[in-house]
Q: What sequence folds into this?
């Protein structure tokens, strides 16, 4: 999965979490750029990404993600290792 | 987890289709059928959103309204969608309230305005061990540990009592989940203050307290033992969001809780319907003959079938009704059941036995009619995926577990589905299966005797009646809450409420036990008449329920005559009553008029209820074939 494909998957998941259509995301999107993406739905989003991709993020990583791009990069690295 | 539910094909498409109809009841029915699939956390989130968009402050027709307050010490918001969706599966319309983080104690003792406004009828306590129990020094002796635990449990009891007093709600307590790691290892079991041992003791004392207080348990601790703690608890979610239950486990959590709620409302399954060939034994009896079947010792598969039979027999012993629905020649099937030396289940174990070549849907309907049970109380077990799909499609109210390919996994799959969840176990439960078998014998007698009147006389019935007794109170509570058909006022109440009612001045409570020459039917009817606060000399029929096992025996006439005599004895002049219609109590819609009541001009308590009254002077007792006996207190 390249970055673009993964952004699309993330956008779909975020849409499901927030109850709307797929959310257009870029590598530089931040949480505050997306309406309603609060800390509660952030945890749900992380859970959903882990479930769908079969990866697990460490607690320190989840705290340090500062953009969607950071999550995409980490998820791709984890998938490449698998 | 939830692997007894079939997978949903193309969830997104199904969800969109489910929301197409413009009428809310159709959308609810569609969503309920989608809810009967194995959905993950994210899918449930979406289904729940669709459900909530329907809105509606009242429960739709055919649903029980559950206003659930979750008083939790950890984060619980993420569990609510799964709780609502699991409720939807079981005809429970759940609205949920969660206490603010860390507020479960305050909310119990001095509820917030919001909680008072919400007015829950069910309250779940989910408390982590450190929230309830302070640290105990590791070298504390057993009695010191017990004392600390007793104190913690007492504190919990006072919370239960407090919310009961404020809301009159049913209370459910989650068992304590062990979050500890081994400290001494295997030796932990021998150290009274070892963290694991403390949780074990806490749960043991919790169960004792719950039994005494009439509180239902939600045994997540047991589920963690069964599935492994990692299936339920994710340390990362605890650290990130203080979730004691991981989001992946939310669907299972919702299901566990909905089972308990359903059990409290008499909505657990009551009847297990089994297929024969390749379910109760390996092989096809019509082709292979009785001696060609694989069943019993000497074969691993044969022993697995025996294990299934043994489990069914245990269910029967706790009051679950067994039936057979099989495509077979009846005589051949019966011969196999009666004659195979290894069979554990025999003909006498089955309250209904359908072996023929009809569609199983037709047969299941016939079994329901024969046993006077709703199809929504049925579980249907069949090894054939096509039969399962057919029954699910035509009779969505019947629970049909997905089964593993390997017969070895049948028992654990059926058990894991929790169809037969209970919140009490009374002598009547134990005897129920026997009573259904006796009913079958009575039915045969009825067929042999031409008139109904002669049949009833031939039964030699005796009713034993008396005011509610303490020892029978659990059965009375169960009867009041589980009876859906012969239930005039649809009143539901817990033991405390009933105690309060019958202790009030002027209340008449009556319990009826019916025996006949086939045996004891048990405590089958209960009635509460309350002295009217407004009108002198008036008794209000607060509740009257009767088990469907004794329909058509004229017990209702004898019971009313007994009630009228008690009313006379305390100087009452009139009985007033309401019929509150529900989807299931049509059988008693004409009862008051048959008993001699007339429609009252007073307004009824709700628009669809009807109000009735009867002057005691006008009452003409009907002669019934039932002999009376006053019970000893």
A:
């Amino acid at each position: 999965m390249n970055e673009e494909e993964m952004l699309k998957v993330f956008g779909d998941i975020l849409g499901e979490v927030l109850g709307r259509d797929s959310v257009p995301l870029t590598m530089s999107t931040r949480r505050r750029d997306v309406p309603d993406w609060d800390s509660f739905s952030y945890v749900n989003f992380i859970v959903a990404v882990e479930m769908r991709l079969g990866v697990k993020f460490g607690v320190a990583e989840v705290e340090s993600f500062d953009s969607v791009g950071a999550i995409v990069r980490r998820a791709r690295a984890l998938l490449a290792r698998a | 987890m939830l692997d007894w539910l079939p997978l949903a094909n193309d969830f997104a498409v199904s969800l969109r289709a489910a929301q197409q109809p413009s009428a809310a009841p159709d959308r609810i029915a569609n969503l309920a059928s989608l809810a009967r699939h194995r959905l993950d956390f994210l899918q449930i989130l979406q289904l729940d959103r669709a459900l909530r968009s329907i809105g509606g402050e009242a429960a739709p027709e055919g649903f029980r309204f559950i206003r659930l307050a979750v008083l939790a010490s950890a984060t619980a918001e993420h569990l609510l969608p799964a709780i609502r969706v699991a409720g939807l599966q079981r005809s429970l319309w759940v609205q949920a309230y969660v206490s603010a983080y860390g507020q479960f104690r305050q909310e119990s003792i001095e509820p917030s305005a919001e909680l008072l406004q919400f007015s829950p009828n069910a309250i779940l306590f989910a408390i982590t061990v450190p929230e309830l129990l302070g640290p105990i020094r590791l070298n504390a002796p057993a009695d010191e540990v017990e004392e600390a635990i007793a104190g913690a449990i007492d504190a919990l009891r006072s919370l239960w009592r407090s919310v009961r007093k404020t809301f009159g709600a049913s209370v459910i307590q989650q068992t304590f989940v062990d979050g500890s790691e081994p400290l001494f290892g295997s030796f932990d079991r021998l150290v009274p203050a070892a963290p694991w041992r403390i949780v074990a003791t806490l749960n043991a004392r919790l169960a004792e307290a719950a039994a005494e207080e009439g509180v239902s348990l939600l045994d997540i601790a047991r589920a963690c033992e069964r599935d492994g703690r990692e299936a339920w608890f994710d340390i990362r979610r605890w650290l990130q969001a203080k979730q004691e239950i991981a989001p992946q486990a939310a669907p299972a959590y919702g299901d566990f809780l909905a089972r308990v709620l359903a059990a409290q409302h008499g909505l657990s399954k009551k009847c297990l319907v089994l297929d024969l060939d390749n379910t109760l034994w390996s092989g096809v009896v019509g082709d292979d003959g009785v001696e060609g079947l694989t069943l019993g010792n000497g074969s691993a598969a044969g022993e697995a079938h025996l294990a299934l039979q043994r489990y069914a027999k245990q269910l029967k012993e706790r009051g679950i009704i067994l039936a057979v629905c099989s495509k077979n020649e009846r005589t051949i099937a019966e011969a196999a059941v009666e004659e195979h030396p290894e069979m554990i289940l025999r003909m006498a174990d089955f309250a209904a036995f359908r072996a023929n070549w009809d569609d199983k849907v037709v047969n299941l309907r016939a079994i329901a009619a024969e046993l006077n049970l709703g199809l929504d109380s049925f579980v249907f077990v069949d090894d054939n995926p096509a039969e399962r799909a057919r029954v699910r499609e035509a009779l969505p109210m019947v629970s049909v577990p997905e089964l593993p390919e390997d017969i070895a996994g049948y028992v654990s799959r059926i058990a894991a589905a929790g169809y037969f969840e209970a919140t009490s176990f009374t002598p009547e439960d134990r005897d129920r299966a026997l009573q259904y078998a006796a009913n079958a014998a009575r039915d045969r007698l009825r067929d042999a005797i031409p008139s109904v009147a002669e049949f009833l006389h031939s039964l030699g019935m005796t009713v034993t009646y008396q005011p509610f007794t303490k020892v029978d109170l659990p059965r009375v509570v169960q009867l009041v809450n589980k009876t859906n058909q012969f239930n005039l006022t649809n009143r539901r109440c817990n033991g405390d409420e009933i105690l309060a009612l019958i202790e009030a001045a002027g209340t008449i409570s009556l319990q009826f036990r019916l025996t006949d020459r086939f045996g004891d039917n048990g405590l089958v009817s209960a009635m509460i008449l309350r002295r009217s606060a407004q009108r002198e000399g008036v008794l209000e029929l607060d509740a009257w329920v009767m088990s469907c096992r004794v329909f058509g025996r004229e017990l209702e006439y004898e019971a009313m005559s007994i009630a009228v005599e008690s009313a006379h004895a305390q100087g009452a002049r009139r009985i007033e009553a309401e019929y509150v219609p529900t989807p299931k109590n049509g059988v008693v819609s004409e009862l008051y008029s048959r008993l001699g009541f007339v429609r009252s001009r007073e307004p009824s308590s709700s628009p669809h209820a009807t109000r009735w009254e009867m002057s005691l002077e006008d009452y003409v007792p009907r002669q019934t074939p039932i002999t009376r006996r006053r019970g000893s207190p």
Notes: The interface with chain B takes residues 13, 16-17, 19, 39-40, 43-44, 46-48, 51-52, 56-59, 62 of chain A (CB under 8 Å). Chain A has a mean pLDDT of 94.
